[in-house]
Amino acid sequence: MVILTFKNVCAGYGRYEILHNINFSMDKGEFVGIIGPNGSGKSTLLKTAAKILKTTSGNILLKNMDINKISLQKFAKTIAFLPSDIEITYPYTVKELLSMARYPFTGIVRNLSRKDLEIIAYVTEQMELTMFMERTIFQMSEGEKQRVMLAQCLVQEPEIILLDEPTAHLDIGFQFSFLDLLKRYQKNFSLSILAVLHDLNLASQYCNKIVLLDRGSVSISGTPENVLRYQILEKVYQTSVLVYPHPISGKPYVFGIPEEWKNLTEK
Amino acid sequence: MKKISIFSLLIFSVLAIIAGISLGTENFSPLKIYKIITEPQTYPFEKTIFFQLRLPRVWCGFLVGSGLSVAGLILQSVLKNPLAESYTIGISGGASLGIAIGIISGEMLTIPVFAFIGSIFSIFLLLIAGSIKKMSSGTLLLFGIMLNFIFSSFSLLAITLLQKEKFMEAVIWFMGNLGSYYPAILNSAPFFLLPAYFFTWLFWKELNIFSLGEEKAATLGINPDKRRYLWLGIAGLITGYCVSLAGLVGFVGLVIPHAVRTCVGADHKKTIPASILAGGAFLVIADTLARTIVQPVEIPVGVISGFFGGIFFVLILMKTSGKQKW
User: Fold this and answer.
1) How confident is the model at residue A251 (pLDDT cuts 50, 70, 90)?
2) Is the CB of B265 less than 8 angstroms away from the CB of A136?
3) Is the Cβ pair A91, B266 closer than 8 Å?
4) Under CATH, to which class is B6-10+55-320 assigned?
5) Which whole number is the average pLDDT over A169-194?
6) Do A146 and A172 fall into the same domain?
7) Domain end call among A116, A131, A156
């Protein structure tokens, strides 16, 4: 079942158009990765899907409904968004941050119901955050903080989660545990995931489908095996790469090549 | 840092108010105050001082202090910037221009009325500029600071050119002073300020979410573009009322929200009532010092709040730096 569709979407800031005629669709329960060089419009694409940036033309359909016709509050019950480099300015505790994500359900006045609390408790347990509930966000490491921000999105009980470079500042341990958690939610709750990923290899290991952006247009989209081919990557990223299957998962693995070794590859 | 409850802030405010009504050129012990209230005919002289001067002045201090703190808290959350407050956002510039016009015209009531109009005018300019150019929070703040410079320079220029002999009066208003309020304004203030505080508190969840940033607010169901202007408007109205009562009392709106966050945490369910109490109590104490420190001279309360408040804030910073970002 198709859950999110981009139809001839153009968008940008002011007079600058960044996205040109984007077309792709995402099925329910799919993990879709958006990759592409710096400035290719990955974050812009995610912001249009999050209803933060208006499209200048074309439509984005959420289960066949134009997202412009859905109220912000109703939209918040279906889609959660994790911005890149989110910085929390004030010393909120983990518990407070997670409670905020129930706002689309409780509204202005209503207190958290038992159901709300159960959802929060379930997510904190899944994310191994139970012992951190009373801590403020300033007392946590970058990896723990990012896990809190993901938990906040999951407390929203979304059908689709949009992530903008969620693993950018994490070490390899936190990168994998973060994506493993997401993958578990994808499998158990058929959560649909649309993530901007900088790291091609993470995208390859975790995504069912990859959309490669090049200067604001979709260059190619499909399975990791179809997209992560050296002919395509070398053209889009302007560098030479090697692609080998990952020894365990068998998914394509992309190797960059430093200049001093480049002449060896030509042989 | 060990957390301080709202209840202890309430007790602190009550103590501050008692100190405020007891101390002055004429000191009253709590027992004496009790007697003045219960048998006023026995103490006609004390009665006049207490009911006509002391009590309204302390009440005025509490209202202004709480109003500036709540406005500062709103602005810091909505703009997601810990340096935002009524005065950095440009309201004080507009207010000072209003005060200058009031002083030059020399009519009764013109100073507070023009101070109010000036505050609203500068917020209005900010809202218009922000909506035409779709400014980010940071740009909006810079725009406010620039408005401030332009307006305050202009008002000082106007005063020095037109009414040099009234320069001292202008300085008193520019520094903030709780002794020159107009009773009509003080009497009407609670009917506006208290509902405004209640309204703000009612929306504590929205302010929490706003302070995570506009992208997060939008995806949690709040339209940041629309609501930001509503909140700027409310903060502007509250500040306008405070300025028309006491002139430009700086510092309170910036520092009290920070101090409160170290006491009760960042959750607006708690920071809003805590700011009301702490801001009110702080200004009452500052004003009591202003009245008593060098008797019989009265120092503008802004000087005291800036001096002691500044030292106090530096101490908090030293204690919490490293553990906490602002």
Assistant:
1) very high
2) yes
3) yes
4) mainly alpha
5) 92
6) no
7) A156
Q: What is the ipTM of this complex?
A: 0.89
Residues written for chain B: 326
- State which residue of chain B sits closest to A162, comparing Cα positions: B219
Give the chain A residue nearest B225 (alpha carbons). Answer: A52
Statement to judge: residues A46 and A171 lie in one domain: yes
Q: What is the pLDDT of residues A51-84, one digit of tens each?
A: 999 999 999 999 989 999 999 999 999 999 999 8
Looking at the structure, tell me whether residues A179 and A243 fall in a common domain.
yes
A·B CB contacts under 8 A: 88
Residues of A near B (CB-CB distance < 8 A)? 47, 50-52, 72-73, 75-76, 79-81, 83, 86-93, 96-97, 100-101, 103-104, 106, 108-109, 136, 138-139, 156
Nearest to B213 among A86, A136, A139 (CB): A86
Please tell me which of the candidates B203, B218, B324 has its beta carbon nearest to residue A72.
Answer: B218
Say yes or no for a CB contact (<8 Å) between B212 and A86: yes
- Among A185, A201, B76, CA closest to A193: A185
Residue with tokens 């912000």: A72
Question: Is A89 within 8 Å of B265 when comparing Cβ atoms?
Answer: no
The amino acid at A216 = G
B265 has a chain A CB within 8 A of its CB? yes
Domain, as residue range, for A128: 86-156
Q: Tell me what pLDDT residue B111 has.
A: 83
Q: Which string of b and e fits A115-140 if b means at least 16 CB within 10 Å?
A: ebeebbeebbeebebeebeebbbbeb
Q: What is the mean pLDDT of residues A191-198?
A: 94
Closest approach of chain A CAs to the CA of B267, in angstroms? Answer: 6
Q: What is the mean pLDDT of chain B?
A: 86
Distances in Å between the Cα of B287 and the Cα atoms of A189, B59, B61, B112, B299 are 60, 11, 7, 19, 9
